[in-house]
Amino acid sequence: MTLERKPFDIAEHLNTPEDIRNFLQEVLDTGDESDFIHALSTAARAMGMSEVAKKAGVTRASLYKSLSENGNPGFITISKVTKALGCKLAVT
């Protein structure tokens, strides 16, 4: 009997807005800027890229491009995506 394996995808486990907030906060607390952009991409996939793009007021294609491994989103994009995910940026 052969076991089938598939790569772990955290997006499959981000089922609620609270899951997404906790995930993004953990990445902010432990990662760097590129980790946070990757986390935004993961959270957007979990919620649905089309829905996040619509809420953020950007096209789905531009959202994919901005949050890709080679993307370099500006602050406005990061802010819009964060809000579309039901979160807010804060300085403490």
Automatic annotation (TrEMBL):
UniProt superkingdom: Bacteria
Question: What CDD domains does the database record attribute to this sequence?
Answer: HTH_XRE
Coiled-coil ranges (or none): none
InterPro entries with a match to the protein in the record: Cro/C1-type_HTH, HI1420, Lambda_DNA-bd_dom_sf
Residues crossing the lipid bilayer are none
GO MF entry, a single one: DNA binding
Task: Please give the Pfam families that the UniProt record associates with this protein.
Answer: dnstrm_HI1420
Signal sequence residues: none
Which PANTHER family would you find in this protein's record? SSL7038 PROTEIN (PTHR40275)
What is the protein name given in its UniProt record? Putative addiction module antidote protein
Question: Which species does this protein come from?
Answer: Desulfobacter postgatei 2ac9
